[in-house]
Amino acid sequence: MESIDPSTGKALPADAIQRVLFIAPAVHVYNIPPLTSTKGYVASSWTADNNKRQIFTARLRILETAIPTNNDETVKTDILLEDPINGQLFAAAPYTVPTVVEQVLDSSRFFAIRVVGEGGRKAMLGIGFEERTEAFDFSVSLQEVRKTLGIEDMGKSGGKKAKEKELIPEKRDFSLKEGETITVNIGGRAGRRSQKSEQSDENLGAFSLPPPPSGGSLGSFLPPPPSAQEIKAQKRLSQNMEVPAPGSMEDLGFDDGEFGEFQ
Asked: What is the rounded CA–CA span in Å between residue 192 and residue 88?
């Protein structure tokens, strides 16, 4: 049976291999309004007014196509929306970058996909799965596709991420050119000592002692204590000193005359 490229409608080579990565028997397709916010799409506006924007219910398939070449093969993946009864193709979305499929902000079951029609015209359609498990399997399948195609590092919100350029150190040439010389100054020990002494002087100059306290408390010193010999000599002098004998009453100032006794 001849294989057909779903995105172009042309016949594929006889040795081309196609593989279905995911299939959902019933997916609701919506004619969604243009995106008005940079944040993303909102599914509540699609299902408003009793699903007024719903087009029909389709079968969704993720189809991988491998085309052998001389020494390698070319792999491409398409998301197909088909008639669930006869399999007729309704729309195809070549999955080349992650932004082909964008999950909405308010639900895990709804997505916006960018389909490509005849002549390369593009349009955004909304799809909604009936079960969250199907939507989860759909996301996992797209993740595997990104790994296979090598686009897993691309951003979710648009385009490829700018790859950080590895900073390669610039090679510098330190070799001497013809006629160039190098002068090296080696300091002697004296120079080192003088530098150290200057540094020590600077350190001492920066450190200042507090001024002495005012007053003469520290200016006058107490006399030294007497020695043992001086103490013995003073005792001897005190013992040899004669105590004067007590004098008469007159010597002591008393009058023994007429008024010596009270009358």
From this structure: 94
Cα–Cα distance between 209 and 63 in angstroms, integer? 90
| Angle subtended at Cα 60 by Cα 6 and Cα 69, rounded to the nearest 5 degrees | 35
Each residue's pLDDT tens digit, 224-246: 677 777 777 777 777 666 555 55
Distance CA 155, CA 162 (A): 9
**Predicted model pTM:** 0.57
Cα separation, 130 vs 107, in Å, equals 12
69-75: Cβ within 8 A, 24+ apart? 75/148, 75/149
CA 230/CA 216 separation, integer angstroms: 30
Rounded Cα distance between 211 and 208, Å, is 9
If DSSP codes are grouped into helix, strand and coil, which group holds residue 60?
A: strand
